[in-house]
Amino acid sequence: MNFYLTTFIARIALLTCILCVYSTATADQVKLGNVTFGAQEPIEIEIADTAELRTKGLMHRTQLAENQGMLFVYPDEAVRGVWMKNTLLSLDVVFLSADGKIVSILPKLAPCTEEPCPIYTSIKDAGYMLEVNAGFVDRHQLKTGQDLIIEYRHDIPSVNQLPVPSLAH
């Protein structure tokens, strides 16, 4: 009996180790892409296309280069909300339709310093949300109705395997 119990426990321990390694490798995989605003140079974006990545977002980051941002990819279009809990950087938030058009902009959102943190929402339905450094929208003269070109690979596996529509124009 002890032999079977020991073998069972050893198999469970091995399976747990394999799952931990797989989970860490999958969760830490960063998808990158580019967003281009008209004739301007593209910025590099990290893709947050799973519930886990969208929840974490840019929390606890102490810096974000001027030419970088994070694109939140959603499986549908809806009014989107964002809060600045545990976000250490001031951000501009740009909401985009499924076809890459700016539908709403929240400029210069400050980090939340006390609970409860307010939730800021898009004015219209959005399938994407782009976070960049505060002041980016003004410096690059982004406006509601403007088209953006978003490019990233959709074929890299995600933790949740959410469907992602193509935005290449």
TrEMBL record:
It comes from the Bacteria. Keywords: Signal. Pfam families: DUF192. InterPro entries: DUF192, Saro_0823-like_sf. Residues 1-27 form the signal peptide. PANTHER family: UPF0127 PROTEIN MJ1496. This is ACR family protein. It comes from Methylomonas lenta.
